């Protein structure tokens, strides 16, 4: 699962026994060589689905990490791109990588997604692979924060994969991972919140609507269909309605 340039088992163990913030600070130099980074195929699919909806003016990559989603925003946004993350280490890597490839127009901001340091200045917010770090009870506040930084008519977009079926090995792998994390958090402090099965589409849609969004689902056809004909991967597009206020 990891390239030779990725973290060692010992490094992963140290990171897993840290807080979310400090764990990602430690992981940051090798993060792009792990399977935790969003695959390019997902980024490209979201970019392709967003292009017909744009162009947008200003974009925000929420929980940006080292900036995998920044290139998506730079393609579909005309004015400015901002990445926000709680980990200073991840931001430092993202900033250095952007500088190395000549992307000085990206603004990197350290901040908590549950208390965003922005006003309603963005037309598009995206996020990739970060929602496992939020407990279900935190979704209303998180979505209210996203709502508060979007201009009326602005969109909040993110991919969601269909959950694996019980017959799939991935189902049991994810169940085992979540169980191990819950045991770890029951026995060790500080907690490391990372639950892959806690972000359920039905709950997400309900909380987005409560926060004042109009929600639609866009199939990402490049990932195929399940046996019942439903898409294996969708993009959630939540639009801030004019005149609505967040929860």
Automatic annotation (TrEMBL):
GO molecular function list:
methyltransferase activity
Q: What's any GO biological process attached to this entry?
A: methylation
- Source taxon at top rank: Bacteria
Q: Name one Pfam family in it.
A: Methyltransf_25
The record's keywords, sorted A to Z, are: Methyltransferase, Transferase
| Record domain Methyltransferase: where | 60-154
Identify this protein by name.
Answer: Methyltransferase
Q: Which source organism does the UniProt entry give?
A: Streptomyces avermitilis
């Amino acid at each position: 699962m990891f390239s030779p340039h990725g973290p060692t088992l010992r490094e992963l163990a140290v990171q897993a026994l840290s807080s979310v913030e400090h764990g990602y600070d430690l992981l940051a130099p090798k993060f792009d060589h792990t399977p935790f980074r969003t695959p390019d195929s997902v980024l490209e699919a979201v970019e392709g689905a967003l292009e017909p909806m744009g162009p947008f003016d200003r974009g925000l990559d929420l929980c940006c990490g080292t900036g995998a989603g920044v290139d998506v925003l730079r393609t579909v946004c005309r004015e400015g791109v901002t990445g926000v993350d709680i980990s200073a280490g991840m931001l430092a890597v993202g900033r250095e990588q952007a500088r190395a490839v000549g992307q000085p127009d990206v603004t990197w901001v350290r901040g908590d997604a549950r208390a965003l340091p922005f006003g309603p200045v963005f037309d598009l917010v995206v996020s990739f692979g970060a929602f496992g770090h939020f407990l279900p009870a935190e979704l209303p506040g998180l979505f209210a924060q996203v709502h508060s930084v979007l201009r009326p008519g602005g969109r909040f977009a993110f991919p969601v994969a269909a959950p694996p079926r019980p017959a799939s090995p991935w189902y049991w792998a994810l169940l085992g991972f979540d169980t191990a994390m819950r045991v770890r958090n029951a026995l060790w402090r500080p907690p490391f919140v990372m639950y892959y099965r806690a972000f359920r589409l039905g709950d997400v849609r309900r909380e987005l609507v409560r926060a004042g969004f109009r929600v639609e689902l866009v199939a990402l056809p490049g990932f195929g269909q399940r046996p019942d004909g439903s898409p294996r991967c969708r993009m959630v597009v939540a639009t801030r309605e004019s005149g609505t206020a967040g929860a």
